[in-house]
Design goal:
The protein has about 280 residues and is α/β, with parallel strands linked by helices. It has ten helices and eight strands. The protein has one domain (about 15-280): Alpha/Beta hydrolase fold, catalytic domain (Rossmann fold), CATH 3.40.50. It is about 45% helix and about 20% strand. The longest helix is centred in the middle third of the chain and has 26 residues, at about 150-175.
Length: about 280
């Protein structure tokens, strides 16, 4: 899971519930001082939340972009539902489309981290199939062409299997056996416990079984940016390089980062994002 470098939103960032046709979603919403150069929707990964992007919000606003980071359905502070069908990739992709519409900003730049990239890709494909153009670009941040690497699949399957028997509280101690007294540790534990278990189980399966849909994404014509750290356990960096080539995508590798450049190297990540969005097309 991403570990945000701080938890208090910067000045100018507003926490609120964003109403959409598919319900309300908890967001962190930052806006530039003047008219925005564009609007960005930030979708977190498995076990993540909007706070994973907290260090990007201020530099993106300073560069002229409104940035809206969201808790997905059943994540952290966004309400969930009991039915597992509410957390299929298609349902979560439709949530992203509803969020983009609710921002009332025209086509937005979409960014998905890890699992969020798979969901974002699903939203782009869904929109293209219906003749909609809600996205100016898609950034896949530490997110690959399909299911995660073998070792990560074993971890995800163990989590999916352990949730019904152990429950979230006991499973937390399996995942994080050493207790800490820091504000961050307490936040991570609270976030984990706030996640809907149905959401965790369903999205864990997505990570294990999502097929390669790179060719379909390339056919949409939506500009794509592939960003990763120098190392990534979820999708090997050479696999991300190959995906970028197949997509004819812009490719950025953030030095000194692993699976969460957004939290580990936010300044460099924000600079790479802005350069991509500002590039003429």
């Amino acid at each position: 899971m991403s570990r945000p470098p701080f938890l208090v939103p910067p000045a100018g960032v507003r926490a609120h519930l964003l109403a959409t046709r598919r319900g309300e979603f908890a967001v962190l919403d930052s806006a530039p001082a003047g008219p925005p150069a564009g609007t960005v929707l930030l979708v977190p990964g498995f076990t993540g939340s909007k706070e994973d992007f907290i260090a990007l919000l201020e530099p993106l606003a300073a560069a002229g972009y409104r940035a809206v980071a969201v808790d997905g359905r059943g994540q952290h502070e966004t309400p969930g539902e009991r039915a597992r069908g509410g957390y299929t990739l298609g349902a979560l992709a439709e949530d992203v489309l509803a969020l983009a519409e609710a921002l009332r900003a025209g086509p937005v730049h979409l960014l998905g981290h890890s699992l969020g990239g798979l969901i974002g890709r699903g939203a782009v494909l869904r929109a293209a199939a219906e003749g909609r153009t809600p996205f100016r670009s898609l950034t896949l941040l530490a997110s690959g062409p399909g299911r995660v690497a073998r070792g990560q699949r074993w971890r995800a399957r163990a989590l999916v299997a352990g949730l019904p028997t152990l429950g979230q509280r006991r499973l937390w101690w399996v995942l994080q056996p050493k207790a800490e007294t820091t504000e961050l540790w307490n936040f991570l534990r609270g976030r984990w416990l706030a996640n809907a278990p149905q959401q965790l189980r369903a999205t864990g399966r997505v990570l294990c079984y999502e097929p390669d849909r790179v060719d379909a994404l390339a056919a949409t014509g939506v500009p794509v940016h592939v960003i990763s750290g120098e190392h990534d356990a979820a999708w090997p960096v050479p696999e991300l390089d190959a995906m970028a080539e197949r997509l004819n995508a812009h490719r950025t590798v953030i030095k000194g980062a692993d699976h969460s450049p957004n939290a580990e190297r936010p300044t460099e990540t924000a600079e790479a994002l802005v350069a991509f969005w500002n590039a003429p097309r």
